[in-house]
């Protein structure tokens, strides 16, 4: 039986246990995904189960694709007909067949996030809700959350004392009705409606219970409540369910994942057989040991053993760069070294670079372009393709060239300023007929009587504002001009009001753009707007490597789950980035950051590089981050510090010393400057007499000159001279 020969005894047992609930609970790289693929192959090949009776769920489309490939490699053509998909696509397929029973039509549309927001806004307007008080995005994420919990509008019981919740209940109800009127569903509905369908129509559920006699789930630790509910419905007659997962790799708590699902599985399925896998096949001893030592610090986890027969391997290389550009150069240098030492046919493919937040990719991308190394951003947009970046560039493009109607069209209502679509269409055709640019057309239209007084007023206001920007082009430096645009158009304010994860990440990207500009202005004394735009557009048009699969993969740590690469770089090993400053406030958040770090480390097969930058202008202001506390959790003997700078040991010692003298408490983040040390700590909560409460993001400068950047909930980030700021430390 050749299939089983490729497996160790525990894996074999998991593959042979085809009936009844099975939980494979094991650490990274121990062959969980392999067990699933072999189990599928075994069922089909050895037990003669028709492929159509098997349903396997994974977390992303990419993972599903990979699993299908692996199964096909084992089985060839007979793999056809197995359902390997994500929860969402499986539900979409089910609903296509049965949604009529819920009062929708079969040709329903699936709305994406942007459509979702548009619908929400309409509904909220109908209800007369003020977007400032109740932000559509906040409503949107609250509704998504309810759907993740399997809560229908009818079931949701708002707290009597919570105004937001009361409104939410109304909005949710109306929003669902509105979607239904449009014969549409959103992402959350796919799951919610499917469970509802199964609840209301047991005979439909029956069909699927009979059809899928074998259900398997990869990355089970990241399922949310509704997904779990769906699984329980599907298998409650036969209980042939096999889930595999690792609580140490649960990284989607913030999106509603319930690691409790994995811990409760045995309670919900009392017959469960639990198999643990302890041998790691992926990584070298050193990498595995490092990852284990770190994740063991987490309190909320199940203890696991993980060992490997793989060679010890090289030590982990750690590099301290001066700034993020030097860090990117380090990555490039090491990739080049790797290439010359390893004559492989597709060397770039073997390398991955992971970072915590999207904005970090910018410095890397520039270095890759400069050195002609092919790369691809996995699961994310390239920096200059992101919506917020394009919006701001559109303003700048228009300001530098007012006949650019396309850019004007992009930003005319961004952020929304109540200039209606109909009005715009009229102005556009008016301009077209007279051969005017949109801008000229707008000016001319002000005299026309088919525009309502209100529309005229709005357009007039808008024109005045952008004409002011136009005047500033000559007199105001680039970064300042951009700041003026961002504040006067209220672009920043709107994002701050939203306050969602997504909005915060957009704000980070904008900060990143501002720091690119500052650098540019320093590099090219008084660099003009025009030359900046030119540089950026050259960046975006670099598509030299379009057709090559052989590229270095760049991605966030979240995207890296389940994947593996011979060579892995993890950049930005700094307090504030990893752990990320938005998190790390509660112990659970910190532990999730640690798990994320663990996921990153355990992707590496042979060689791991870690790096951090002493100064980073990732956030608009230059800032210096303390080394990530996770670095201190790695055994020193596994680390090899990259020359030439030689500063690292000193630096490490310096942090250690401060800990010994009690000046830093274990695990605490402190902003620092290469020249000295200050009592204001990153993450501290402070109160300002005018701006109210805020959190310290960074501290720079000395004594009298010391400045702190503080993120205030009322006014956003402010850089203040500490001496005059009158700050009160709250915690
Ligand atoms: P993760 O927790 O990261 O999802 P995993 O537990 O799913 O990891 P796999 O991806 O299935 O682990 O396996 C990790 C690597 O080890 C793969 O390259 C796989 O082919 C290999 N591997 C697993 N089991 C064996 C085995 N018994 N013999 C040889 N190689 C194996
Ligand atoms: Mg896996």
Cofactors, ions and other ligands in the entry: adenosine-5'-triphosphate, magnesium ion
Strands in their spatial order, largest beta sheet: 11-12-10-13-14-9-17
Integer tally of domains: 5
Q: CATH class of the largest domain, please?
A: Alpha Beta
Low-confidence stretches: 540-548, 645-659, 662-678
Helix content: 40-55%
- Give the second-level CATH assignment, the architecture of the largest domain: 3-Layer(aba) Sandwich
Report on the structure:
The chain has 731 residues and is α/β, with parallel strands linked by helices. The chain has five domains: 3-94 and 192-279, 3-Layer(aba) Sandwich (Rossmann fold); 111-182, Arc Repressor Mutant, subunit A; 316-381 and 546-654, 3-Layer(aba) Sandwich (Rossmann fold), CATH 3.40.50; 383-537, PCRA, domain 4, CATH 1.10.486; 685-729. Helix content is 46%, strand content 14%. It contains 28 helices and 22 strands. Helix 9 (187-200) crosses helix 10. The longest helix has 23 residues, at 453-475. The structure holds adenosine-5'-triphosphate and magnesium ion.
In brief:
The chain is of the alpha/beta class. 46% of the residues lie in helices and 14% in strands. The chain binds adenosine-5'-triphosphate (ATP) and magnesium ion.
Question: How would the blueprint of this fold be written?
Answer:
Elements: H1 2-5, H2 9-16, E1 22-26, H3 32-45, E2 54-58, H4 61-75, E3 83-86, H5 87-98, E4 109-110, H6 113-126, H7 136-148, H8 163-181, E5 184-185, H9 187-200, H10 202-211, E6 214-217, H11 225-235, E7 241-245, H12 260-268, E8 273-277, H13 285-295, E9 316-321, H14 324-341, E10 351-355, H15 361-370, E11 375-377, H16 387-400, H17 405-411, H18 421-434, H19 438-445, H20 453-475, H21 478-488, H22 491-498, H23 501-523, H24 529-540, E12 552-556, E13 565-570, H25 587-601, E14 604-613, E15 616-619, E16 621-623, H26 629-632, E17 639-641, H27 647-660, E18 685-688, E19 692-700, E20 707-712, E21 716-721, H28 722-725, E22 728-729
Parallel strand pairs: 1-7, 1-8, 2-3, 2-6, 4-5, 6-7, 9-14, 9-17, 10-12, 10-13, 11-12, 13-14
Antiparallel strand pairs: 15-16, 18-19, 18-22, 19-20, 20-21
The protein binds adenosine-5'-triphosphate (ATP) and magnesium ion.
């Amino acid at each position: 039986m050749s299939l089983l020969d490729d497996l160790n005894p525990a894996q074999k047992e998991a593959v042979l246990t085809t009936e009844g609930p099975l939980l494979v609970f094991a650490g990274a790289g121990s062959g969980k995904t392999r067990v699933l693929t072999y189990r599928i192959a075994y069922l089909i090949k050895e037990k003669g189960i028709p492929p159509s009776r098997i349903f396997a769920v994974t977390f992303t489309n990419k993972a599903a694709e990979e699993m299908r490939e692996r199964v096909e490699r084992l089985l060839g053509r007979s793999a056809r007909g197995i359902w390997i998909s994500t929860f969402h696509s499986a539900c979409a397929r089910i609903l296509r067949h049965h949604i009529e029973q819920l009062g929708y039509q079969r040709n329903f549309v699936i709305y994406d996030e942007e459509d979702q927001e548009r619908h929400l806004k309409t509904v909220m307007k109908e209800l007369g809700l003020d977007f400032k008080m109740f932000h559509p995005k906040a409503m949107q994420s609250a509704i998504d959350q309810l759907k993740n919990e399997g809560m229908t509008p009818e079931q949701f019981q708002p707290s009597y004392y919570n105004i937001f919740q009361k409104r939410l209940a109304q909005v949710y109800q109306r929003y669902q009705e509105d979607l239904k009127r449009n014969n549409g569903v959103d992402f959350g509905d796919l799951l919610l409606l499917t469970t509802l369908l199964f609840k209301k129509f047991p005979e439909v559920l029956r069909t699927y219970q009979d059809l899928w006699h074998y259900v398997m789930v990869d990355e089970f630790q990241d399922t949310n409540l509704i997904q779990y509910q769906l699984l329980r419905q599907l298998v409650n007659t036969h209980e042939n369910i096999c889930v595999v997962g690792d609580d140490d790799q649960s990284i989607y708590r913030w999106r509603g994942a319930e690691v409790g699902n994995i811990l409760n599985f045995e309670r919900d399925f009392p017959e469960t057989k639990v198999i643990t896998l302890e041998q790691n096949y992926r990584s070298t001893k050193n990498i595995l040991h490092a990852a284990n030592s770190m994740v063991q610090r987490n309190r909320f986890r199940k203890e696991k053993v993980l060992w490997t027969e793989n060679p010890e391997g090289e030590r982990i290389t750690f590099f301290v760069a001066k700034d993020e550009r030097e860090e990117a150069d380090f990555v490039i240098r090491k990739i080049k070294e790797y290439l010359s030492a390893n004559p492989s046919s597709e060397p770039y493919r073997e390398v991955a670079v992971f970072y915590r937040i999207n904005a970090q990719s910018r410095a890397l991308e520039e270095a890759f372009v400069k050195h002609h190394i092919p790369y691809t951003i996995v699961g994310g947009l390239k920096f200059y393709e992101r919506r917020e970046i394009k919006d701001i560039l559109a303003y700048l493009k228009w300001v530098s060239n007012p006949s650019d109607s396309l850019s004007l069209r992009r930003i005319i209502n961004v952020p929304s300023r109540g200039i209606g679509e109909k009005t715009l269409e009229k102005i556009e055709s008016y301009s077209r007929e007279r051969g005017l640019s949109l801008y000229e057309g707008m000016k001319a239209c002000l005299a026309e009587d088919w525009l309502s007084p209100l529309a005229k007023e709005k357009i007039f206001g808008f024109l005045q504002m952008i004409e002011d920007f136009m005047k500033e082009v000559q007199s105001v430096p680039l970064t300042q001009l951009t700041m003026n645009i961002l504040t006067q158009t209220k672009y920043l304010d709107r994002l701050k009001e939203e306050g969602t994860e997504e909005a915060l990440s957009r704000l980070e990207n904008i900060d990143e753009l501002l720091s690119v500009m500052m650098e540019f202005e320093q590099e090219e004394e008084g660099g003009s707007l025009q030359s900046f735009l030119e540089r950026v557009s050259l960046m975006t048009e670099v598509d030299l490597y379009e057709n090559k699969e052989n590229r270095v993969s760049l991605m966030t740590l979240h995207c890296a789950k389940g994947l593996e690469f011979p060579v892995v770089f993890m950049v930005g090993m700094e307090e504030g980035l990893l752990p990320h400053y938005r998190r790390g406030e509660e112990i659970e958040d910190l532990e999730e950051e640690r798990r994320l770090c663990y996921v990153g480390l355990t992707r590496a097969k042979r060689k791991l590089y870690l790096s951090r930058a002493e100064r980073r202008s990732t956030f608009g202001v230059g800032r210096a981050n303390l080394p990530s506390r996770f670095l201190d959790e790695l055994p020193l003997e596994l680390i090899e510090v990259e020359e030439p700078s030689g500063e690292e040991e000193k630096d490490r010692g310096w942090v250690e010393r401060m800990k010994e003298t009690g000046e830093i408490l274990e695990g605490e983040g402190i902003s620092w400057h290469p020249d000295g040390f200050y009592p204001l700590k990153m993450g501290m909560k402070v109160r300002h007499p005018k701006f109210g409460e805020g959190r310290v993001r960074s501290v720079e400068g000395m004594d009298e000159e010391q400045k702190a950047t503080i993120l205030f909930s009322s006014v956003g980030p402010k850089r203040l001279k500490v001496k005059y700021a009158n700050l009160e430390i709250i915690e």
